[in-house]
């Protein structure tokens, strides 16, 4: 018969206890793994703005004479503006702020702008600001990266000093200034909105749309310059050669036109 001394017995018991504890730990760990729910990552889709340029609801380019709702005729040689603070509203009432694209500079020569990767799902509407926030508005464009829309632009989108800041909107063209809208479209005009007083928030009408995962999704809208100049007398342009509106030369007219920005955009 083989006998174990006390030391061997204690060692065996200790080893057995460790084996039992390790077994319980493994079983417990496996149990925890099985009880954890499977978390499915939120699917995302690429989201773009597709912004058309229009006058009176009809799409135009720099060679097109447009007619507004009053039958007035004009055409654009330049039409560009800044957009920022873009927020998507979901169908359930929550929101998704666009983080990837802080600013975009809409030009007539380009209609499509990538914004961000957006959670797939159903959405009801969009809000955004036309202009530049007050902090960035007083930074010299040369201080931004050359890839930024706030960098130096040609044509310029800056009034020339950090106190005056950016042109939120720069519009140039030719108008028919005859009383009966039957003259020639040859009278030059310039509109340059800016300063914090001209920044406007656009709340797009509720038009449900869906973001589908893993594909490119486009939100189409029109920027209607006929709506922008609503209430502005083209006939009055004749009172000033090369009619120019800015917050520094004609603040009341600039405010009147800036107030039209909210109605300038419509979903397509």
Secondary-structure map:
Layout lengths: L5 H30 L8 E12 L2 E2 L6 E2 L5 E18 L4 E3 L5 E4 L5 E8 L1 E10 L36 E9 L11 E8 L5 E4 L5 E3 L4 E9 H4 L14 E3 L5 H8 L6 E3 L1
Parallel strand pairs: 1-13, 10-14
Antiparallel strand pairs: 1-2, 1-7, 3-4, 4-5, 4-6, 4-8, 4-9, 8-11, 8-12, 9-10, 13-15
Q: Strand count, sense and closure of the main sheet?
A: 10 strands, mixed
Strands, count: 15
Average of pLDDT: 89
> In percent, how much strand structure appears in the residues?
35-45%
**Helical segment tally?**
3
Oligomer: single chain
Q: How many domains, in number, for the residues? A: 1
Flag low-confidence runs: 22-28
Radius of gyration: 31 Å
- Taken in chain order, the helices and strands follow as HEEEEEEEEEEEEEHEHE
By secondary-structure content and strand pairing, the structural class works out as alpha+beta
Q: Give the overall silhouette.
A: globular
- Percent of residues in helices comes to 10-25%
How far is the N terminus from the C terminus? 96 Å
Output the keywords.
268 residues, alpha+beta, 10-stranded mixed beta sheet, 5-stranded mixed beta sheet, 37% strand
What is shown here, in short?
With about 270 residues, the protein is an alpha+beta fold.
